[in-house]
Amino acid sequence: MSFINYSSREINCKIVYYGPGLCGKTTNLQYVYAKTNPDAKGKMISLATETERTLFFDFLPLSLGEIRGFKTRFHLYTVPGQVFYDASRKLILKGVDGVVFVADSQIERMEANLESVENLRVNLGEQGYDLDKIPYVVQYNKRDLPNVATVEELRRLINPRGVPEYQAVAPTGVGVFDTLKAVAKLVLTELKKGG
Amino acid sequence: MNSGLVMYEEEFRLIAGICDRLTRDANAKVVFLVDKNGQLISSSGHAQNLDTTSLASLTAGNVAAMGGLAKLIGEKEFPNQFHEGERESLHMSIVGGRVVLVVIFDAKSSLGLVRLRVKKAGEELAKVFDGLAKRQTAPGAASPFAEITDDDIDNLFSE
To answer: How large is the average pLDDT for residues B73-98?
Structure first.
């Protein structure tokens, strides 16, 4: 849920990166953090296990600039991808304004992708959201690996509704900002409608 | 989609006033108010050196996690939490079901005093947020951003 503050002239929105374990959600945020002007970003927080797997969430506050005299701030969150952290994933979806689904393009991860999309749909539903109505963007990550499915195949399985989709290689930044811009734009458009 | 929280000047002044008074009355170092979704609403006291954005996000995460734990043991939520540090302590209280009032205090205050003052401030804040909710859902309360154009949004992303 967005937070509009007339007093401080700010719009705050929450975007959640969702996807199966090790698909590159944290890497997306790390790239955004590394490439963003220090004035435009806050501290990145990662609540991770000793093996660097996300335990609760990663958090990155980001300022995009002004729109009609209002500062626009996006709070980016990732969820833990591992199946057994479902309770944490549900909590992080509270108050979400937009979702990025990060798919792992590797053929052997296709079942994990499908399970994760279904899990996203169910968990959003529990919070009163509908995946078919919320601002939603899909990213096909790890396009640089040799054993990847074709984009057509990924689209058929993960994105039958045809929401905006981007190919990405998160560690090098390919597609990372395109994905972020697309979801931010959808969120602002929804805000305009009075969503 | 659920509509978000809209804060108007008048209510913001009331909230800031209540938080300022709580800071004084409770001898607190910092008082801040956070939306349950992790957005910082207001802060009072010595907040200048604090990363309030991160504090807000982690507060919401903590309250959400404790809420999840509460449900697992058959409670609706834990409306008050206290975390004791070596020098500084943290008291969190859920107000009006929607926001979290956080008080950071040290040895100049005490948990008893903080709890007493938080209770009173919480009641006052709950009234303000009730009023805000009514104002937001009043007929004719159009989206405050209806006038944003597609060009405005595009310009935000121009390099």
So the answer is: 96
For chain A, say whether B61 makes contact (Cβ under 8 Å).
yes
> How confident is the model over B29-40, as pLDDT tens digits?
999 999 998 999
Question: How close does chain B come to A146, measured CA to CA in Å?
Answer: 33
Contact (Cβ atoms closer than 8 angstroms) between residue B3 and residue A1: yes
Tell whether the model's pLDDT for residue B147 goes beyond 90: no
Q: Out of B3, B57, B150, whose CB is closest to A59?
A: B57
> Is 80 exceeded by the pLDDT of residue B158?
no
* Inter-chain touch B148–A43, beta carbons under 8 Å: no
Overall average pLDDT of the A38-49 stretch: 92
Mutate to test the interface with A, among B36, B145, B152 (most CBs of A within 10 A): B145
What value does the mean pLDDT take over residues A24-49?
A: 94
Q: What is the ipTM of this complex?
A: 0.89
Nearest to A55 by CA among A18, A94, A22, A82: A82
| Measured distance CA(A12)–CA(A188) in Å, rounded | 10
Distance between A176 CA and the closest CA of chain B, angstroms: 14
Q: Under DSSP, is residue A5 helix (H, G, I), strand (E, B) or coil?
A: strand
| Alpha-carbon distances of A9 from A73, B3, B53, B54, B119, rounded to whole Å | 11, 18, 16, 20, 30
For residue A152, count other CB atoms closer than 10 A to its CB: 8
Q: Which chain A residues in 80-99 lie under 8 Å from chain B, judged by CB atoms?
A: 87-88, 90-92, 94-95, 97
Q: Which residues in B lie closer than 8 A to residue A184 (C-beta atoms)?
A: 156-157
pLDDT category, B100, cuts 50, 70, 90?
very high
* Helix or strand run (H / E) with residue A78: strand A70-78
